[in-house]
Design goal:
Blueprint: H1 40-59, E1 67-77, E2 80-91, H2 94-109, E3 115-119, E4 126-133, E5 136-145, E6 161-169, H3 173-181, E7 187-190, H4 197-206, E8 211-217, H5 238-251, E9 257-262, H6 270-282, E10 286-289, H7 298-305, E11 309-311, E12 314-315, H8 322-339, E13 341-346, H9 350-366, E14 368-369
Parallel strand pairs: 2-5, 6-7, 6-13, 6-14, 7-8, 8-9, 9-10, 10-11, 12-13
Antiparallel strand pairs: 1-2, 3-4, 4-5
Length: 377
């Protein structure tokens, strides 16, 4: 599937909307991000909602320039983790607005009862819908009557920029080599203390891919949810954190920056996160907040401390099929159009490799893909 759905205007799949009167109230190696721990039925419902929304917009003649993903925010509740999508859609007149709304109602009315949608009160110039998978708020769609296209590029002299980090490397040298062949400047984030840590780091440097340390940190649900060997834990004192981080950096020589592996609990604690940032700052390294918790303080702290930083906008392969990854790339491109730059995080899945290979040329039509260091600030 090409980079279609909305941004590239192709390959949409249909679904449909249920409207209640009121809103509803051990890890294998490598251990992937906590976003992947959500239950399969919930994951499938979110995919069906995405497809329904895309089908409605496609059938209504909505074009790429008129759709923006304003945000893809990480949410966690009741042991489930997901990306919340806020989408803004420009429609040209009241007739088109009514048509899109009618199709939304038609599509969602036939979905399973666990997928629900309700309409917010709104002025006559727009309509806002909230969509739920079970009792989890997953999408907010704002339809607005506007004459001018949404989201004029933030940067007029250059394309919007995206950076793609591949996390959890260090277990499969062959996969690292294959990713290095992709015609995009992917950033390699390598786990310490993995069987192939040194080999993968050498692949990255040899193939001129930006190299990062993927720091394992304590997640919510620890120790049942295991971040792997060498994790930074909440109970460690400052000296233990510094010593362990120093050891990890020695295992990934030449790393230009770092990001967190898991860490939904660790990154919510300012004191211990500051120790990590201070050590990285001393060495001139940047830090990317993977945002495995919506309450992470890492990005804010890094900016306050003068450490170059960025934060993840989209996990690209929550659903590791090539089709689903193409949809996530759409989101990443749309956020970059809105903000000027965006960061996506991927993992060494076969579907991810295939999607990046197949979408590389299409991405270049819309955005400039750069090393993540060029997006840090």
């Amino acid at each position: 599937m090409g980079m279609g759905v909305i941004l590239l205007a192709g390959g949409l799949i249909g679904l449909t909307l249920y409207s209640p009167a009121s809103p509803p109230a051990p890890v294998p190696q490598p251990a992937y991000e906590e976003i992947h721990t959500r239950p399969r039925p919930f994951q499938d419902r979110i995919a069906r909602i995405d497809q329904a929304v895309y089908e409605v917009l496609y059938r209504s003649g909505i074009q790429e320039k008129d759709v923006l993903f304003m945000d893809v925010g990480h949410r966690h509740a009741g042991g489930e983790t997901w990306d919340f999508s806020e989408i803004q859609v420009r429609v040209k007149d009241e007739s088109t607005l009514e048509q899109v709304e009618a199709r939304l109602r038609e599509h969602f009315a036939s979905l399973e009862p666990e997928i629900q949608c309700w309409k917010e009160a709104e002025p006559s110039s727009e309509a806002v819908y909230r969509i739920y998978a079970g009792h989890r708020y997953t999408h907010r769609i704002r339809l607005r009557i506007e004459k001018d296209p949404l989201g004029a590029p933030v940067r007029e002299k250059r394309k919007p920029r995206i950076a793609i980090i591949v996390d959890d490397l260090g277990y499969d040298r062959g996969m690292a080599r294959a990713l290095a062949e992709v015609n995009l400047p992917l950033c390699f984030s390598v786990l310490p203390m993995a069987p192939r840590t040194g080999d993968v780091a050498r692949v990255a440097k040899t193939r001129h891919r930006e190299l990062m340390l993927h720091i394992p940190m304590e997640p919510k649900g620890y120790p049942e949810l295991n971040p792997g060997p060498g994790a930074l834990l909440n109970g460690m004192d400052d000296g233990e954190i510094r010593n362990l981080l120093s050891r990890h950096l020695k295992e990934v020589p030449g790393a230009e920056g770092a990001n967190n592996h898991m860490g939904s609990s660790f990154t919510e604690h300012a004191a211990q996160t500051a120790v990590v940032l201070e050590e990285l700052g001393k060495k001139g390294l940047f830090f990317v907040d993977s945002k495995t918790s919506g309450h992470s303080v890492a990005y804010r702290l890094a900016r306050e401390m003068g450490v170059r930083t960025a934060q993840r906008n989209v996990f690209l392969d929550n659903e590791p099929s090539e089709e689903a990854i193409a949809r996530q790339l759409d989101r990443l491109v749309s956020i970059a159009r809105h903000r000027g730059a965006a960061v996506g995080i991927a993992h060494p899945f076969p579907g991810t490799l295939d999607a990046l290979r197949h979408e590389a040329d299409r991405l270049k039509e819309f955005v400039e893909t750069v090393p993540v260091s060029e997006i840090t600030e």
